[in-house]
């Protein structure tokens, strides 16, 4: 049974007193049926809209009418009643590789905001195992976690295996996982945008600092970059694979620039590796962007405060977190597992680290 089916049967539990003229006079409660009547739709349609059903079954016009009616009547769901009725804890777990990484901070923020709007809590822990992970496992054993969002970077995680082995509904975030519901952004398109931008600036000898081979995002970004290079008819970029860390980026920069014919532009497929590359270039006396251009893949604003400011490919990681929460709700509703991708395209954020290839000038398209 799905959320909106239960809403139709038991929708009185969703009502709250509203501060409008009718409630003040008669103490009435804004309920799902009131929203449906106000919007001129069936009660199940109103329920799908208010539950954020992402399946696309309700038209944009109808959705707008329902949301306007909910706003007018100041309607809010009674999350406690809903969770009690469904015998749910009203809490999700979220596993991430690094609590300090700006990208994951953005993803977490999107998940928290989406969950809060639905009256849900998100408990966050990082890998590898630690006290927080042990506490999360204890909550699972006590049936106080309804599901899990797994945003670990590598293909396999001991924690993920443990949770799956205990039958916890899971959604993989920012990575693909065979046979599991996943939510991703278009990493390939983001990397391709970086390559095309370098090409437009006249760069034909380019390098890429990729991540570890066992990281799904690293593989997809590299695939997108190389595919775009092949389409434009320039040599396949040099790959220097390292960890998604500043040290990894610094080492990769040294490796790339030691080539007899070094690149004039480099794409770092991760912010921290890009910052490491920028630091190492400065240490080697390589002027950016006069002698080397640098583009990074990330949406963290900290890139705007490096010297020079990094040109970056902004990805909708906040939307990724929000969509992941909605996807996990689908799984808990018993809907068919599916792979979702955030539709918002990557965006180029200009910075001082990208300039024209001084040997050939700007390319003409």
Automatic annotation (TrEMBL):
Record keywords: DNA-binding, Repressor, Transcription, Transcription regulation
Protein name as it appears in the record: LacI family DNA-binding transcriptional regulator
PROSITE patterns: HTH_LACI_2 (PS50932)
SMART domains (UniProt xref): HTH_LACI
Keyword Membrane: no
Pfam families: LacI (PF00356), Peripla_BP_3 (PF13377)
InterPro entries, alphabetized: HTH_LacI, LacI/GalR-like_sensor, Lambda_DNA-bd_dom_sf, Peripla_BP_I
Biological classification of the source: Bacteria, Bacillati, Actinomycetota, Actinomycetes, Mycobacteriales
MF terms (GO), sorted A to Z: DNA binding
Domain HTH lacI-type: 30-86
Organism: Gordonia sesuvii
Record bears the keyword DNA damage: no
